[in-house]
Amino acid sequence: MGRIERRWRHSPSRRKALASLAGLVAGSPLVAAGVTAQQDPRPLKDHRRLPGLDEMQSAFDFEPLMFANVPQAIYDYTAHGDGSEFTLRRNREAFEWVDLVPGRPIDRSQVDLSCEVLGTKMKYPIMVAPTAAMVPLHPEGEAGMHRAATESSNTPMIVSQNTSLPIDRIAAAATGPLWWQLYPYQPQGYETSKEVLDRAQAAGCTAVVVTVDQQASYYERTAQDRNLGGTPRTAGRGGAPAGPAPTSGPALYRLSTGRLWYTWRYLDEVRRMIKVPLVVKGILTAEDAALCLEHGVDAIIVSNHGGRSMDYGPSTLEVLPEIVAAVNGRIPVITDSGYRRGGDILKALALGANAVLLGRATRWALGAFGPAGAQRLLEMIQRELVDAAALAGRATLASIDASVVKTRFP
Fold first, then answer.
1. How far apart are CA 93 and CA 38, in angstroms?
2. Is 305 annotated as catalytic?
3. Rounded to whole angstroms, how far apart are CA atoms 282 and 407?
4. Rg of the Cα trace of the chain?
5. What is the pLDDT of residues 56-114, one digit of tens each?
6. How far apart are CA 154 and CA 158, in angstroms?
7. What letter does residue 41 receive in the DSSP assignment?
């Protein structure tokens, strides 16, 4: 073997060389200095073993375990946001723009955050957000999530229309309160909407949440995983088989044509179809909140679909105060998108929210440990919220107001 051949044999491969370079860049203090504290961490990357359920310390601990448990396509569906994912990142960064103001601490045993929203009684102002197709995360799917929510202080759960289990099976799994989330059907499909809503109400859902955001979403990072990951991704929403790629029409240019027709007339029709409160999810402006009041909506959810709705949109936390001001206490204001800690929830409550929905975090926990994981996740965040309220000196939900925070929104 010649000198050149020996050098080849002992030199690093191109792949190893690139991996070493990536490690060097990742460890650079210049890179670390540019990472904000609120970006979702990967806390287990340096650990030598996977921790157990009783070792989970925060919501973030569940994500890498969920990632290890499920196929890439299913993880992608939960993890990614629209376009460049600016809004996905902004949802987390916004919490850095709101500081909690220390108060006179009280004992956590004095804190009682119980409340009632649209007739649904809650020990904590926390609900499970509607997210699609949970069976790919765990075989018990939405039924397991419902049991977990019920076991964690009867936490209400909103069931997605894109559920992977029938609503009657989910309702039978536990006794906790359920709401139903509806995606509008085309106007000629009013009868289809009525059939879906009748089933949901018959199963015991006590509110209907109509989602009006996610008008045009395109998951660029998901496309990159599909094309560059070595194995073509063949799964669609929640791991379900994907349809053929569009070859013509608006969908070719990333427009979701099935959701670009929404009208107030449709909401008026839905209002006539149901006997329970009507909630609109996806409000991001004071003007739309005022229109919801005009159309008799019973509550609104300030949401950008967890960063999946529109790239370069605002975070929900920064628009929450103007929407709360527009509503002026006439109907409940709920919010979601980016909430991971009890302190995050306290900030939203201080800015006027009546309750907060948890979406991705509950999916991480279900995918990591099944229903037991989802229950632990909810209980951890409930405890974090109580601890944060105690440190702020607030014993009740009514005592949590704008004086709890200082905002520095850009």
1. 6
2. yes
3. 23
4. 23
5. 999 999 999 999 999 988 998 899 898 889 999 999 999 999 999 999 999 999 999 99
6. 13
7. P
- For the chain, the domain total comes to 1
d(CA 231, CA 119): 49
| Residue 4 belongs to a domain | no
Q: Is the dihedral of CA 5, 10, 11, 12 positive or negative?
A: positive
What domain range is 312 assigned to?
A: 86-234+256-407
Q: Is 203 exposed, middle or buried (0-12, 13-18, 19+ CB in 10 A)?
A: middle
Residue 381 pLDDT? 98
Which of 174, 164, 112, 137 is closest to 361 using CA atoms? Answer: 137
Query: Is 296 within a domain?
Result: yes
Q: Which long-range contacts (CB under 8 A, 24 or more apart) does 188-196 make?
A: 190/269, 190/273, 193/269, 193/270, 193/273, 194/273, 196/161
Distance CA 42, CA 136 (A): 22
SS (H, E, C) 228-296: HCCCCCCECHHHCECCCCCCCCHHHHCCCHHHCCCCHHHHHHHHHHCCCCEEEEEECCHHHHHHHHHCC
Ranges 4-13, 166-175, 208-217, 398-407: which has the least confidence = 4-13
What CATH number did the domain enclosing 373 receive? 3.20.20.70
Q: Decide if 78 is inside a domain.
A: no
pLDDT digits (tens, 9 = 90+) for 255-293: 566 666 788 888 999 999 999 999 999 999 999 999 999
For CA atoms 36, 283, 114, 390, the dihedral sign is positive
Rounded distance between C-alpha atoms, residue 354 and residue 319, angstroms: 15
pLDDT of residue 8: 42
Are 238 and 132 in contact, with CB atoms under 8 Å apart? Answer: yes
Q: Is residue 17 part of a domain?
A: no
In the chain the first and final C-alpha atoms are separated, in Å, by 64
Please state, in angstroms and rounded to a whole number, the distance separating the CA atoms of residues 34 and 275: 51
Look up residue 201 and give its DSSP letter. Answer: H
Averaged pLDDT for residues 14-22: 44
From the list 80, 138, 146, 305, the catalytic residue is: 305
- Judged by DSSP in three states, 299 sits in strand
